[in-house]
């Protein structure tokens, strides 16, 4: 039962494993997830460790899997989900077959991809040629045929002679559309305006063979005269990455070439289709096993990474590792080691020895799906010191309750309950969502927190009798009207005296009649302000009392008298007394009494009374009233203040003087021990370190002061004393945020009702129904966005601050480090989140 209230007890263990059983043993430990290994090769480079070759082999397998997965996603194939059937880590023999299969698949995919790129490149070139031939039909006329000659048909001498006789030459091709204008300007400059360019934009984009992205291109024909100009134009085309294609000047020849190109395109399209089908079949076959292969490789890589933390013994026949293990899981670890040895048929069993250490162990709080969210809230402040009292257990109740005090509304709490219940009831289905985003992961991880916050908000909403800013008359109001109809109709304001217009007390929560009262805010302010102070003082008293649990566990019994007693006295004699006077005031003054000093008009202000108590002042009471609530109150208040003031030097000097006194006794005892206990030690030897214990000097949750000079101890204690005294005042005032946010939430809800929804409720007729429908939608939107989301987040953050600062600072140290076990589940979940 103790592990529910504090972190689990840890043991530092040393394991001896045979090399042939090391892989399977670590695999079994990874499945259990209850061992945190220590690195015994800190001074060894990562590239010089024993299993670095196997790690590189796993890296290569991961690279191949990532490549195949990329190709699968490129084809739009959905990988199967194997959350319910996660494979175990493979043995080394299975990895050889997997490696060969992945190598074959990768080679086949690379070959198919390269062939596809080549064929698509040919297809693109043929398509561009067809577009050139089709789009240049309008560039030529019958008259031009007599005067044109293609530079691609004529020979060098004949072409030069033809151009010398005045015939024009031309080049045709395709260029990217965004480069056309620069291309045209460049041709103009190099030819000084002696090039005639015709172009036509392609309507349909072409696909890039390598990337598959659409490319918009333009067909062009450049007419020129002269061989020198022809060479310049070709150089410009090369510089602008324009593709040149042969284009006959004869109409019949162009028609014949177009037919040949279309035939070749149809054949190439058929080959591409068959290639795509073969590629799809290969990827579909691989996709069935790829998730399992990926998990197996990740597990194998994690095993070899862990084995690199082990150290080889001197005889090279045994692997030695050190690890932290929860003492409750020691049988599980021993069974995992025996199963690992039995899996490979090892005749020599593995050993697990618990060793003593002075090192602070990691902190491990075993959680379930309900408590995990609350534990994360505590760990976000700081991981608890080893075996320190864990506040998460109490936060399960105090956190949603303080949230509900600020978020008290039955309707808004019901919205949170419905949202939290939906996530809780459908958690298996929702847990499969992988790409929900960071915000969704936060909401889903805190689903039980949201559910409890909603339930407590519904409870406080019933106490406040507040449902979307309206009240419910469940039990019948205890107030009644003594005025006649004429008086009610002729007077805008009427007063209901409690001694004549009220009978009894409303059974549960706030009487609904306060919804109609003009002094509603004044009454609720007084009620919620006092309520916030009462809850705040109780919360802080509980936090101070929790320090006793730590002192007792770490055997720091002197700190109970030197720290806890003055702290609790200081808190109770001042602010605890103020809370007592609030209750005393509620019970002592009654509207039905005939004795004037006990009427509500004579009730003194608790705040003014507390200020006078601290300043030793008096306030003149109204005529016929008493300044104090009972006779011996001034003497009692002076005694409380004096005792509280005495607690300050008690906290300031008690612990340093105790340390100074005990340090002298320890020095004397150590001197005697050197003469007796260590007599048999040889010269130069040192005593063996003692085992880890929970005493003041060694415990993680305690403060050891053996090495600190007394001056630092005095300064340290002075800082703590000043911090506690001042924080007691400031933290009490900080709990007033419970009242402030509750008031703001109620007023925002009332404004939304009066300024939005009530306008629709006042409408009539068909138009009124339509208007009410629209206004109701707007009201729902504002309610969810402002009152539930924004106000809920604000109340959540304020509640978190009250726990981190006001509550946990009284006893929580939070100087530990988290237990991070070697767990396959944690490794796979972490990679999925990334």
TrEMBL record:
It is found in: Membrane. Pfam families: V_ATPase_I. Residues 95-122 form a coiled coil. It is a multi-pass membrane protein. The chain crosses the membrane at residues 399-425, 446-464, 533-552, 564-587, 639-658, 769-790. Residues 686-705 are annotated as: Disordered. One of its GO terms (biological process) is vacuolar acidification. Essential component of the vacuolar proton pump (V-ATPase), a multimeric enzyme that catalyzes the translocation of protons across the membranes. Required for assembly and activity of the V-ATPase. PANTHER family: V-TYPE PROTON ATPASE SUBUNIT A (PTHR11629:SF61), VACUOLAR PROTON ATPASES (PTHR11629). This is V-type proton ATPase subunit a. It comes from Drosophila mauritiana (Fruit fly).
């Amino acid at each position: 039962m103790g592990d529910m209230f504090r972190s689990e007890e840890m043991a530092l263990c040393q394991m001896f494993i045979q090399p042939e059983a090391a892989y399977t043993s670590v695999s079994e430990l990874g499945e259990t997830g209850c061992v945190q290994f220590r690195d015994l090769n800190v001074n060894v480079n990562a590239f010089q460790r024993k299993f670095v070759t196997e790690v590189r082999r796993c890296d290569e397998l991961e690279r191949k899997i990532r490549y195949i997965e990329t190709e699968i996603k490129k084809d739009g194939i959905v990988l199967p989900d194997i959350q319910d059937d996660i494979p175990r880590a493979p043995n080394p023999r299975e990895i050889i077959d997997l490696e060969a299969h992945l190598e074959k698949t990768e080679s086949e995919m690379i070959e198919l991809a390269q062939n596809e790129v080549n064929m698509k490149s040919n297809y693109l070139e043929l398509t561009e040629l067809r577009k050139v031939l089709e789009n240049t039909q309008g560039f030529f006329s019958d008259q031009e045929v007599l005067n044109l000659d293609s530079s691609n048909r004529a020979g060098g001498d004949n072409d030069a002679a033809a151009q010398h006789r005045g015939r024009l030459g031309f080049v045709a091709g395709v260029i990217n559309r965004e480069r056309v204008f620069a291309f045209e300007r460049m041709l103009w400059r190099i030819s000084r305006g002696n090039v005639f360019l015709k172009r036509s934009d392609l309507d349909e984009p072409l696909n890039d063979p390598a990337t598959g992205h659409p490319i918009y291109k333009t067909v062009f024909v450049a007419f020129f005269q002269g061989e020198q100009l022809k060479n310049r134009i070709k150089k410009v085309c090369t510089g602008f990455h324009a593709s040149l294609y042969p284009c006959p000047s004869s109409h019949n020849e162009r028609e014949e070439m177009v037919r040949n190109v279309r035939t070749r395109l149809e054949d190439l399209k058929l080959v591409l289709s068959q290639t795509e089908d073969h590629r799809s079949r290969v990827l579909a076959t691989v996709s069935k096993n790829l998730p399992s292969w990926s998990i197996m490789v990740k597990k194998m890589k994690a095993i070899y990474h862990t084995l690199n933390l082990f150290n080889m013994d001197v005889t090279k026949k045994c692997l030695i590792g050190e690890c932290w293990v929860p003492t409750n899981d020691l049988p599980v670890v021993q069974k995992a080691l025996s199963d690992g040895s039995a899996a490979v048929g090892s005749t020599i069993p593995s050993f697990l020895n618990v060793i003593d250490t002075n090192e602070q162990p990691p902190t491990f709080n075993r959680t379930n799906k309900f408590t995990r969210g609350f534990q994360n809230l505590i760990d976000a402040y700081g991981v608890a010191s080893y075996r320190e009292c864990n506040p998460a257990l109490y936060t399960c109740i105090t956190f949603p309750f303080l949230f509900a005090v600020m978020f008290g509304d039955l309707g808004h709490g019901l919205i949170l309950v419905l949202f939290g219940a939906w996530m809780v009831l459908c958690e298996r289905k929702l847990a499969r969502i992988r790409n929900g985003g960071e915000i969704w992961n936060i909401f889903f991880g805190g689903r039980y927190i949201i559910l409890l916050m909603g339930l407590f908000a519904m409870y406080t909403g019933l106490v406040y009798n507040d449902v979307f800013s309206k009240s419910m008359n469940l039990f019948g109001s205890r107030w009644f009207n003594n005025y006649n109809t004429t008086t009610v109709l002729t007077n805008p304001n009427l007063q209901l005296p409690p001694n004549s217009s009220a009978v009894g007390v409303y059974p549960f929560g706030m009487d609904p009649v306060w919804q109609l009262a003009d002094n509603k805010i004044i009454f609720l302010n007084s009620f919620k302000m006092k309520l916030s102070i009462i809850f705040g003082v109780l919360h802080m008293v509980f936090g101070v009392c929790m320090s006793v649990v730590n002192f007792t566990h770490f055997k720091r019994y002197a700190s109970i008298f030197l720290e806890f007693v003055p702290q609790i006295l200081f808190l109770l004699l001042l602010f605890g007394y103020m809370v007592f006077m609030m209750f005393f005031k509620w019970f002592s003054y009654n509207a039905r009494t005939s004795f004037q000093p006990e009427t509500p008009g004579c009730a003194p202000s608790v705040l003014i009374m507390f200020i006078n108590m601290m300043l030793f002042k008096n306030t003149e009471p109204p005529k016929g009233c008493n300044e104090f609530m009972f006779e011996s109150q001034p003497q009692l208040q002076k005694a409380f203040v004096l005792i509280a003031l005495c607690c300050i030097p008690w906290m300031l000097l008690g612990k340093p003087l105790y340390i100074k006194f005990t340090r002298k006794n320890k020095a004397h005892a150590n001197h005697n021990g050197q003469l007796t206990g260590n007599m048999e030690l040889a010269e130069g030897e040192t005593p063996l370190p003692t085992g880890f214990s929970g005493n003041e000097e060694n415990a993680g949750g305690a403060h050891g002061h053996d090495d600190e000079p007394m001056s630092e101890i005095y300064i340290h204690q002075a800082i703590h004393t000043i911090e506690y005294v001042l924080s007691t005042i400031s933290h009490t005032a900080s709990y007033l945020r419970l009242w402030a946010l509750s008031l703001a939430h109620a007023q925002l809800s009332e404004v939304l009702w009066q300024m939005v929804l009530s306008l629709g409720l006042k409408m009539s007729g068909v138009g009124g129904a339509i208007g009410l429908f629209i206004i109701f939608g707007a009201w729902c939107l504002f309610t969810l966005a402002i009152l539930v989301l924004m106000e809920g987040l604000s109340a959540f953050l304020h509640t978190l601050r009250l726990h981190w600062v006001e509550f946990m600072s009284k006893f929580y140290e939070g100087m530990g480090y988290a237990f991070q076990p070697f767990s396959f589940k944690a490794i796979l979940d972490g990679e999925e989140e990334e």
